[in-house]
Design goal:
With 127 residues, the chain is mostly helical. The chain has helices at residues 3-10, 14-23, 37-46, 78-85, 94-111, 116-120; strands spanning 59-62, 73-76. The termini are far apart.
């Protein structure tokens, strides 16, 4: 839905919708609409899996927003990408991926505990 369509439905102007998107980081769901060229270029340079945890499901992160310089990109899994975009760890350059993000992610995965019996049983625990 475009800003104009949202504005019309809510009885507002598209400028108001744009203002709230900018002020409150309410971005449109652009899943599947982005140009994957940059991701392919990044994967050729930095590999097919997350640079931090080596998971093969990846996303392209722009360390410098909207940069077209490949040195300002990183290939990350959704978890690592979410940590950066939600500003749990602030990354300003590629070196900080290893020095700041890696220890944070190691701590996250260390603190995740699964009850393997429940996982194997698909969550169906008999009482």
């Amino acid at each position: 839905m475009t800003d104009k369509q949202v504005a019309k439905k809510l009885g507002l102007t598209s400028e108001v919708i744009k203002y709230y998107r900018m002020q409150y980081n309410l971005w449109k769901n652009r899943k599947g609409t982005s140009n994957q060229k940059h991701k392919k270029d990044g994967m050729r340079t930095y590999g097919q899996s997350c640079e931090i945890c080596n998971i093969s499901v990846t996303e392209l992160h722009h360390i410098v927003p909207k940069s077209t310089n490949i040195k300002d990109w990183a290939i990350l899994c959704p978890t690592c990408h979410a940590v950066i975009t939600r500003r749990l760890v602030k990354i300003e350059n590629r070196k900080e991926l290893k020095t700041k993000l890696t220890p944070f992610i190691k701590n996250v995965y260390k603190n995740i505990k699964f009850n393997l019996e429940e996982v194997a049983d698909n969550g169906n625990v008999s009482t």
